[in-house]
What does this fold into?
Amino acid sequence: MTTDAFHPDELAALPITEFAFPGPLRDQLVAAILDGSKTSTTGVLADYEHEGDPLPVPGTRSVVVDSQHRPVAVIETTGGGVVALREVDLAHAMDEGEGYTTVADWRAAHERFWHSPAMREALEDPDFTVDDDTPVVLERFRLIADLRA
It folds into this structure.
């Protein structure tokens, strides 16, 4: 699909979705969305609650922005839910499009991100940590439009 499928007013009305923080990780994730290899994502429920963001709802569309906050894609949520961190399965981890071949590798990378100074600052909790029981938000989505022209 192309940007022709969306009127500028329609795009402006969609919520913005940001993956990670601006920089190399966001660039990698956005590239994976655009090439179709990333069709799932995981966030900690504490972040949704802190930001006041709604949980993923199937059918919801949003605009993905890159590290320069430019709109680059429209995605549509196809599924989601809240589970304990220990319940994330290999299919979800692999669908994150980052090359994970084990849940352990996926979890180690996500824990590095969630325990990072940037994440702790965003949550305003310098001691934030996750464990097996931490609620995480799983989201599945599909690429609707590549907005790069």
Summary: The helical segments are 8-13, 24-34, 45-51, 90-95, 103-114, 117-122. Residues 3 and 9 are 12 Å apart (CA to CA). The mean pLDDT is 95.
